[in-house]
Design a protein that fits this description.
Blueprint: H1 2-36, H2 39-45, H3 48-67, H4 75-95, H5 98-105, H6 110-114, H7 128-132, E1 136-141, E2 144-150, E3 156-164, E4 167-174, H8 177-181
Antiparallel strand pairs: 1-2, 2-3, 3-4
Helix pairs in contact: 1-2, 3-4
Pfam family, one: DUF2939
Organism: Vulcaniibacterium thermophilum
Protein name: DUF2939 domain-containing protein
Length: 185
């Protein structure tokens, strides 16, 4: 009976260790997929639908805040907001692809380039291996893990991993407010 309890305890500890190591294994899998430029492998570690929805919401929120509270009252401004919202959706769709996520993870300034602002991203020439080494990790809950890195402007970009069963995937990319509000250069 004692042997069964000991084996059960060892199995539970091993399972807990595996779950705790899950985000780090996912980051390692993303690194490997980027090194091999393997889109199918990257798809295994990134929930593109969740990332796309999150990016769309962030961009639309930034547009609405930039327009101000009076924009909804003016019909022309409301129409402009609707057009901007559609453009935000297209931008989120462009970034939330295997190539777009790979570019963000490699430190390339995708949003700035898509917006026509050029790139002064100092990390543009840095390999993703070194850039991903600057991550700061934190568990937010047993099912949520964040990895934060500073972009070239010193603003945090937060990669959020979520757990579904034993599997961890990238579910959100929290962009720096300065990038979305146009404060970054």
């Amino acid at each position: 009976m004692k042997k069964v309890l000991v084996l059960l305890l060892i199995a539970l500890l091993a399972l807990a260790g595996y779950v705790a190591a899950g985000p780090f294994l996912a980051i390692r899998g993303i690194r490997a997929a980027l090194e091999r430029r393997d889109v199918a492998a990257l798809d295994e570690y990134v929930d593109f639908a969740a990332v796309r929805a999150s990016l769309r919401a962030q961009i639309e929120d930034a547009i609405a805040r930039h327009a101000g509270p009076d924009a909804q009252a003016d019909p022309f401004a409301a129409f402009g907001l609707k057009l901007a919202s559609t453009a935000a959706g297209s931008l989120a769709d462009a970034v939330a692809t295997p190539a777009g996520i790979a570019a963000v993870l490699e430190g390339r300034s995708v949003l700035r380039r898509l917006g026509g602002g050029g790139s002064r991203d100092a990390r543009a020439g840095v390999g993703h291996e070194r850039w991903l080494d600057d991550l700061h990790y934190r568990y937010e809950s047993p099912s949520r893990f964040t990895a934060t890195v500073r972009n070239a402007d010193g603003e945090p970009v937060v990669f959020v991993f979520g757990r579904d069963g034993l599997r961890w995937t990238l579910v959100d990319v929290r962009l720096p407010p300065g990038l979305l509000d146009g404060r970054s250069r």
